[in-house]
């Protein structure tokens, strides 16, 4: 008599909901992504924007990513996903795309930092901090995208 093994659906880890989101590894990156992204747009907004085209893209990417990540976090906290496999695909695609966009924004912010090196000292320090947080946020989005993909 053949034994009945577990189905393929039961071997997949369940998507967290509620406070378990903060304890489950790939999903625990969402809150630091939001916080670091918030720092990026606060720091860029605090500078006197000398290159509006460069830093405008940084502001757009950081603000949009913060808002969408906040909505994604709220949907996980409230359990809107109902343990659907499509949410993992959505999460992976979102974080992968956002990592690419954030990398472009971080490079542009680093360029704006280099260009502001010889201007007012406070703007240079704020741009340095914004560049640091932009690259840190990029790294968090990359970690999240790869960890959800390989889960």
Give a short account of the largest sheet.
none
Shape descriptor: elongated
Which percent bin holds the helix content?
over 70%
| Oligomer status | single chain
Question: How much beta, percentage-wise?
Answer: under 5%
- Please count the helical segments: 6
Q: How many beta-strand runs?
A: 0
Question: Runs with pLDDT <50, length 5+?
Answer: none
What is the typical, i.e. mean, pLDDT? 81
Number of domains: 1
- Report how far the terminal alpha carbons are from each other: 33 Å
Spatial extent as radius of gyration = 19 Å
Structural classification: mainly alpha
**Order of secondary-structure elements:** HHHHHH
GO molecular function, one term: structural constituent of myelin sheath
Protein name: MALL protein
GO biological process, one term: myelination
Transmembrane segments: 27-51, 57-80, 92-110, 130-150
